[in-house]
Write a structure and sequence with these properties.
Shape of chain B: globular
Low-confidence stretches of chain B: none
Number of strands of chain B: 8
Strand content of chain C: 15-25%
Distance between the termini of chain B: 61 Å
Mean pLDDT of chain B: 91
Largest interface: B-C, 45 and 48 residues
Number of helices of chain C: 12
Mean pLDDT of chain C: 91
Strand order of the largest sheet of chain C: 3-2-6-9-10-11-1-12
Number of domains of chain C: 2
Strand order of the largest sheet of chain B: 2-1-3-4-8
Largest sheet of chain C: 8 strands, mixed
Chains: A alpha/beta (153), B alpha/beta (336), C alpha+beta (352)
Distance between the termini of chain C: 63 Å
Structural class of chain C: alpha+beta
Radius of gyration of chain C: 23 Å
Oligomer: heterotrimer
Helix content of chain C: 25-40%
Chain lengths: 153, 336, 352
């Protein structure tokens, strides 16, 4: 067979097998509990996220997000309590400010900002959690594997 | 009128104010600019005696942000017992803004400072002039009417002033320090708020993601990671910069493209709501990288989201030191 | 005549022939800055240049260099050493001051039992084709340091720009071999050689900076605590530009980078500067050089006192980059003049 055709076939195979790997920072009191509820209620959602439990979305340092992108993660998700419901009163409000600035800067630098997502999900919102995970997975799948920002050597 | 006459007037009144301050012993030391050792340069200077006032100059090559010397306080600005000296600073608008913002961040006390306000008419983009002239040596730079005249061996070139000042100076809205406290003397101005449509960014922002990435990596590709930009910035006073941290090592210090972009991205993030658009970072870069677009974007973000401009109000908290219950969250993921 | 001529329109021919055997490094314009980079075609070579912004030490001692790589499997660690050190390099158009800096670099990397294999191997396989400076700038002061704009000592081949052609002179055996390979070079005439000599004299006479280094080392030694250091370092912001872009500065930091996901890592070295506030930070938290005063002083002492005392070499080549690029114009020439004046004041005291 023609060499270029063989290569294209191999690449396509990789593409078909590829599933987005998304690192998810979930706040312990709301979002992590919400994910737990989704699991207990047997609500199906794509197995694309790898959860990191943090005490509050305000604990999430923008360095975690950027470092995840350079380490090769295809997507990053940060989820916290709804504004006004934070277990630590204002942690999620501070986080929201950080994320707004980070989001705008990522977009400005031409880094695919659709890879980095933020959401609110409370402990009682198992169904909502699953819906949003499905949404994030599709968003990241459309972008393909993360090669732009990865530290290559 | 012409730039030459403007500069002479600014210099004359600035020296007058400085002389009075030293005569009346209202300050112990004055930080200003002095003539450099070759044409396209100026040098910051610290004077303590009235006789030295004539060393202070003003021309359009005064690009260093003098607020840098105050945080952390260098030993030369402390008295023998370690107390603060009273300091006078020749302040363009951006230097004044930097001092006000540092006071808001509680890094200095405006009571020990006198801002000698001057109505800055712009700082020349010397890297651009050097690039346009090429490898020839400059012997003299002067102003005539609204042009800069650069003379060297076997050549003389004219540069329209308004085109060859720093990109940030072209859109500057705070040319003299904001008069927010008794620290401001000389030429200061009332700055209740800033009106800015950020039209200079619309071209860049309409590009696609790939085009933006291309342009950013292109601009930053020559970065040598010397950190001159960080050292020249008055807002970069951290004892341990994030790139130097080793527990853990967050980001690489190499000249790989992703490492270079991350340094500038994260430094920009740390500057959100704090950058005063003085352009010192671009002026000191030895490789001539122009960070003006990033600076403008930072100002745009905090103005449009939080109606905040750094360094014009001693009461309002900067956006990253504050929070609100209700605010725009259009970037958050939501169910359809 | 031993000397040969290389016409300016023959540069492409020179490149085509030499690029077969050597990695051809030449001055190239990149975003408005001249830097020494590997030319991929002769059109990239910039012949109308004063000097590069980043010194040619970058060719042998780059900003970032991999020392070795390692990978891990079940039981073993496999170390991958550098394999590209035998690559033959050629630096075209290097100025005599920068060529002299290579002597200082060699002194640093080849010190008794401490030999840096990576740098030394590369240096061994590098040929220097230098270019005389017809128009030194006002900030140049190589002549004050026993240098000269047309100094041949540290080059393999010397070129002199005669307008439409270069005079080619081989200096070392390596250089002679190279020039002999280029058999198509025409013979130079006596007039050409005389013109080159005239240009040399003209260049030397055009120097505007004349500094006296004869007493600097002697003055610095007893004046470690002199108050003049406070004055000299007053406006320094500690940015490190002077050391990054100095052809003789060699400090580097060593960092281990790991790629845990792929079980591998590498050890790299990157440029570092003694002007950084963490340069002498001990793990105890104590920092003997805690302020700009000590750090500024250290740099001057290192170049003009420790180097002459320990190695009989002055740690500066007079290229003037630090003078041109210092953001606060803390001019090294002014500093040297101030240091020279210290001695005078001492004499005044004695006479009084």
């Amino acid at each position: 067979m023609n060499e270029t055709v063989v290569k294209a076939e191999q690449e396509k195979k990789v593409d078909e097998e590829w599933e987005p790997k998304i690192i998810a920072f979930l706040c312990n009191w709301c979002s992590y509990a919400g994910a737990d509820l989704a699991g207990v209620s047997r609500i199906q959602y794509p197995p694309s996220i790898r959860v990191v439990r943090v005490p509050c979305s305000g604990r999430v340092n923008p360095y975690f997000i950027i470092r995840s992108l350079t380490d090769g993660w295809d997507g990053v998700l940060v989820s916290g309590c709804h504004p006004g419901d934070c277990h630590y009163i204002s942690g999620n409000l501070v986080a929201r400010r950080r994320f707004s600035i980070l989001n705008e800067l990522l977009e400005f630098f031409g880094i695919e900002s659709d890879r980095v997502n933020f959401m609110w999900a409370s402990a009682a919102e198992g169904e909502r959690f699953a819906v949003l995970i499905r949404k994030v997975t599709e968003k990241v799948r459309k972008l393909g594997p993360n090669t732009q920002f990865q530290k290559k050597w | 009128m012409g730039i030459e006459t403007d500069n002479q007037e600014i210099e004359k009144s600035m020296r007058e104010v400085a002389r009075n301050l030293l005569k009346e012993k209202e300050v112990d030391v004055i930080i200003g600019y002095s003539k450099g050792t070759f044409p396209l340069s100026t040098s910051p200077i610290m004077i303590k005696k009235e006789e030295e006032v004539d060393k202070l100059i003003w021309n359009n090559l005064c690009y260093v942000n003098l607020a840098k010397y105050l945080v952390p306080k260098i030993p030369q600005l402390l008295d023998p017992e370690g107390g603060d000296l009273k300091i006078g600073i020749v302040s363009k608008g951006c230097v004044g803004r930097a001092l006000v913002h540092l006071a808001v961040e509680k890094q200095l006390n405006l009571e020990n400072i006198k801002m000698i306000g001057i109505p800055c008419n712009g700082v020349v983009n010397r890297r651009r002039i050097e690039k346009d002239i090429g490898e020839k040596e400059v012997f003299e730079i002067s102003a005539s009417g609204n042009d800069l005249i650069v003379k060297g061996k076997d050549f003389e070139q004219k540069f329209p002033f308004d085109e060859y000042i720093n990109e940030l100076c072209k859109v500057c809205k705070v040319k003299s320090p904001p008069s927010v406290s008794e620290a401001c003397i000389g030429e200061c101005q009332e700055v209740p708020s800033i009106e800015d449509d950020f039209g200079d960014l619309s071209d860049y922002e309409s590009k696609t993601t790939e085009e933006k990435w291309q342009e950013i990596t292109d601009t930053l590709s020559v970065c040598t990671r010397c950190y001159a930009c960080r050292e020249a910035c008055p807002m970069c006073y951290c004892n341990l910069c994030f790139v130097d941290q080793n527990k853990p090592i967050w980001f690489g210090k190499t000249t790989d493209m992703s490492d270079i972009v991350i340094f500038h991205l994260v430094r920009a993030m740390h500057m959100a709501g704090r950058c005063v658009a003085c352009g010192a970072c671009s002026s000191v870069c030895p490789m001539g990288i122009d960070l003006n677009k990033i600076t403008r974007k930072l100002e745009k973000i905090v103005k449009e989201r939080y109606d905040f401009t750094s360094g014009i109000d001693t009461e309002k908290l900067p956006p990253m030191m504050d929070f609100e219950l209700e605010e725009a969250e259009e970037f958050m993921l939501e169910e359809d | 005549m031993e000397e040969k001529l290389l016409m300016k329109d023959q540069i492409a021919k020179l490149y085509d022939e030499l690029a077969k055997d050597y990695s051809f490094f030449a001055p190239i314009k990149e975003k408005g800055n001249i830097v020494f980079k590997k030319a991929s075609n002769p059109e990239e070579i910039e012949l109308d240049y004063f000097n590069s912004k980043v010194p040619p030490k970058e060719v042998l001692f780059p900003k970032m260099e991999v020392l070795f790589e390692y990978s891990l499997d079940e039981k073993d660690v496999e170390i991958k050493e550098r394999t590209d050190l035998d690559e033959k390099r050629l630096i075209f158009g290097i100025r005599p001051c920068d060529a002299h800096s290579f002597v200082l670099l060699e002194n640093f990397f080849d010190f008794g039992e401490f030999k840096d294999e990576i740098f030394l191997k590369k240096r061994e396989n590098t040929t220097l084709i230098g270019m005389g400076c017809n128009s030194p700038k006002s900030t140049c002061f190589c002549t004050s340091l026993e240098g000269h704009p047309f100094q041949r000592d540290d080059l393999d081949v010397m070129l002199v720009d005669l307008g439409d052609k270069y005079l080619v002179e081989s200096v070392t055996e390596k250089g002679k071999e190279l020039v002999q390979k280029l058999s198509w070079l025409t013979e130079a005439t006596k007039a050409d050689v005389e013109k080159a000599q005239d240009l040399s004299i003209q260049a030397e006479e055009s120097f505007q900076t004349h500094l006296d280094f004869s007493n600097v080392a002697k003055t610095l030694d007893p004046n470690f605590d002199h108050p003049i250091w406070e004055e000299i370092s007053e406006i320094c912001i500690g940015c490190g530009t002077c050391s990054f872009l100095c052809p003789t500065c060699t400090c580097f930091d060593v960092i281990d980078e790991t790629d845990e996901y792929n079980n591998r890592g590498r050890r790299i070295r990157i440029w570092d500067t003694c002007q950084s506030c963490q340069y002498t930070l001990h793990t105890s938290g104590h920092n003997p050089r805690n302020s700009c005063i000590e750090r500024c002083r250290n740099r001057i002492l290192h170049k003009f006192s420790y180097y002459p005392t320990n190695y009989n070499l002055i740690g500066c080549v007079g290229c003037g980059r630090c003078v041109q690029l210092c953001p606060v114009n803390n001019d090294l020439r002014t500093i040297i003049e101030k240091i020279n004046k210290i001695e005078d004041k001492k004499e005044e005291k004695i006479s009084a």
